[in-house]
Design brief:
This protein is 74% helix and 0% strand. By secondary structure, the chain is mainly alpha-helical.
């Protein structure tokens, strides 16, 4: 159990240490694009910084966080030592090496290709190899989530897996599928050209492969936050989850509907037919269902907690909630930002309206609302929950701890 805590802490600290410079780069990019004066006004540095910022935020930070969170859940929710811990450290080492390998050529100005790395724009092969290693390292985590899930089921026949473990396993399965798109593009399309083994590249196929990852990765980011919604928030608020079954349905729907939807980013590309694009539009709309279920369930759970704490009247339960608890406040803010972020997604999925906002700042604003608003806020709240238990020390100025229950109603 002690070594499991060290494993989780290593992943979480790596995630947040990578997050810090990425935030600084994002702030500088904001100054560059605003009327305010910005230091080091250099377009070459700007595009290198966008590549570093996007690569860390899209791949490195959420991958290390999800892995660390997953290992903490496996130990805490299942109540057993982590099976295969040595392989977890191998995956961590590969992802860490890949992170350094990717960011060094970016810092050297040899990979200013943005985090989407669409050809024919190409950078150093070591950048692509580095990101591929980050993802390959995460496959050890995927395998270990499945192994520990199965081991618990074998030891507890007939019992439902705790909701947190059920959800993080769904997250691992989703990531295992969706990451194959970007990895395939890198290994079979980009690297042969950047190493000089080939002199041609199919840009349309490369964009198609990347699009398999491009949208479903958003749900890889979101699911850890949703796990906190369903398991940590009701306890922090002093109530209970409205429906354990609703949570399980939500994570199954995420797994089913998010797998094929990335290609709605190709509505303007000529390689795909109108019928295929229509199917993508419908599937993208269906992904809104688990989010709508979550908003209802979590709002109901918050109301239960507010009523338990003495809230009266139609909206008195809102005032009665413990807004000084990091998890409760973070979830409230996250849901507020998830609303406009999700609305932007509905515009993106409509074929006609997508034509108006394609390749505009609308798309950038959409995924910043989802990632920066709905996701990162909750990641920090999860850290407030985990660190006291993983370090076995209370937070400075306050004590606050919360375990992973099944979330059953």
């Amino acid at each position: 159990m002690e070594r499991g805590r060290v494993l989780s802490l290593a992943h979480l600290w790596t995630a947040f240490l990578c997050f810090l410079p990425a935030v600084g780069l994002g702030f500088w990019q904001m100054l560059m694009r605003s009327p305010l004066p910005a230091p080091v006004d250099d377009p070459n540095i700007y595009y290198a910084s966008v590549t570093a910022h996007g690569s860390i935020m899209a791949y490195v930070f959420p991958t290390f966080f999800a892995m660390g969170f997953g290992y903490a859940i496996a130990v805490s929710a299942l109540g057993r030592p982590l099976q295969g811990e040595k392989w977890a450290w191998v995956g961590y080492a590969l992802s860490l090496i890949g992170t350094v390998m990717a960011l060094v050529p970016v810092a050297a100005g040899r990979a200013s290709v943005l985090y989407t790395f669409y050809p024919p724009l190409l950078g150093s092969p070591w950048y692509y190899l580095g990101l591929a290693l980050v993802i390959i390292g995460s496959y050890f985590w995927i395998a270990l989530m499945l192994v520990n899930f199965r081991a618990w089921k074998r030891e507890n026949p007939g019992k439902p897996v705790p909701l947190a473990m059920f959800a993080i396993t769904a997250c691992a399965l989703l990531w295992g599928w969706t990451a194959l798109g970007a990895v395939s593009e890198v290994l079979f399309q980009i690297l042969p050209v950047t190493f000089g083994w080939s002199h041609t590249i199919d840009a349309g196929l490369a964009r198609t492969l990347f699009s398999v990852t491009l949208h479903a990765i958003v749900y890889f980011w979101l699911i850890p936050a949703y796990i906190a919604y369903y398991t940590l928030m009701p306890q922090a608020a002093g109530g209970r989850l409205y429906s354990d079954t609703m949570g399980r349905i939500t994570f199954i729907l995420f797994l089913v509907f998010s797998i094929p939807v990335g290609m709605h980013h190709l509505f303007m590309d000529p390689e795909h037919g109108a019928g295929f694009k229509f199917v993508q539009s419908v599937l993208t709309f269906m992904v809104a269902l688990p989010t709508l279920l979550t908003v209802f369930t979590i709002t109901a759970s918050l109301e239960i907690a507010g009523r338990v704490r003495g809230g009266k009247g139609l909206f008195g339960w809102i005032r009665a909630l413990p807004w000084d608890e990091p998890m409760v406040l973070a979830v409230g803010l996250s849901l507020l930002l998830l609303g406009p972020g999700g609305f932007g997604g509905l515009i993106n999925m409509s074929y006609a309206m997508n034509a108006m906002i394609h390749n505009t700042s609308w798309v950038t604003a959409h995924f910043h609302l989802i990632f920066g608003g709905a996701v990162v806020i909750v990641y920090f709240a999860i850290a407030y929950e985990l660190l006291p238990r993983l370090t076995q020390r209370p937070l400075v100025l306050r004590t606050f701890s919360c375990g992973f229950g099944s979330g059953a109603s």
